[in-house]
Each structure stands twice: as structure tokens, then as C-alpha cells.
């Protein structure tokens, strides 16, 4: 298996230089292109993914609407949220086990926390086994996702994939929510770059449990403050408007090098 991966990298190193320009969607991916694949810096363009800031924005009424539909008290439970594909490489076995252990050892945590999950996949049915305070909504359209993000207090992103930059944490950030994510370079290098923006954890059950307890103890006031800071950073880096402008400049850059600088 290791030999196959090494051979793949060797082949990519030989193949990649044939391209005139390379786009990386995270700072970490850009660093890999320059260091591992030895692409000249001027041919690597870091254009971070962006989401629609007109849809994903703080809107208290949207969150209250969903909480009413789900029967969640407006100012009671701490609400954790997850969205996306409920599969192994997104870290769902990890957080399932962490929650299972916490619920068994701490009744107060179990009674005061609600987990709302938007998405589908093999782990959807498993989550329901953890109790009535785990709500699996299935896949949601963008309008309902806007309600979802506004209803939660923090977005949990336990991904085990280290490459690229997923949309879901960016949607949460633009909605004014802090993110709790696995400590992978693409996320710590571009998204959660400091503790004032959210929380990071190692991809182990024990580390995840400690971080969940910390989030719980910090409470809603601290989470709201982190969410506001995350949104301010998100508006500078992760909007669809900024991403579109960067790609437009890339196309101009292809014809004239003077345009190869990004706002």
C-alpha cells in the first residue's frame, strides 16, 4: 500500500509540471504543491473556497423557527451541529464513540446537550441509538441549511481527510458559528487559525471527549463570542464574491502576469 502511494506521488511529480497554473483551495494544499511537487511559487494560486454570503448569514429568526419545529427550547440546551456525508472518513465513528462514552459517564451532559445532524449516510441510523437528543434530519437544501446553522451553537467537523477545504465549516462560519474541528493542516492553516475562532482536537476519542467537555463548560456566551470573530474572518476570506473575483483574476493572469496578484 505504501509503495503504491509513493509511486503515485512520483508519477504526479512528473506529470504536474506540464500545467501552466495550479489552483490550491487551502494554504496547506498550496504548500504541498510547492514543497512536495516542486511547482514554482508563481504558478501556484491559492484561492480559498467560498460560500454564498447572502444565504449563510446570522439570522436569529431562522434558527428559532427550526428549534420550534424540532421541539428544542429556545434558550435551554447547548446545540451541537454536524452536516454532510455521514461516512467513516468524515470522522463519524470517532464522534459516535466519544458521545457514547460521555453519555454513559455524565448524565448532566447528556440531558443538557442536543446534537442536530443534517445529512445522510451509513452512520445516520447509528446516531439515533444514542438517544432522543440526537436528531438526524437527513439531507437539507440551502434554505433549510441556513436555518440549521442559525439554530446551533457550534458546528462540529470531525473529518479525517487532510486535503482540501470543505464547504460545511465555511457555511457555519459565515452563519456566525464557531467550529470544532479535527486538527488537520488544511483547516488549522486556513480556517481555525487560533482559539478565538473555535476549537481543534486530535483524531482520537479521548481528545474529542476533552474538547466536547470544554465546549460544554465554556457555554453559549463564549461560543457566541467565538462565532462573531469567526464570521469577521470568514467575510474577509470565505465568501463566494471573493472567490469569484479571485478566479476572474486568475483568468486575466493567464494572459498577463501583472494580474497574478490576488486581493
TrEMBL record:
Q: Which SUPFAM superfamilies match?
A: UDP-Glycosyltransferase/glycogen phosphorylase
Pfam families for the chain:
Glyco_trans_1_4 (PF13692)
Protein name as annotated: Glycosyl transferase family 1 domain-containing protein
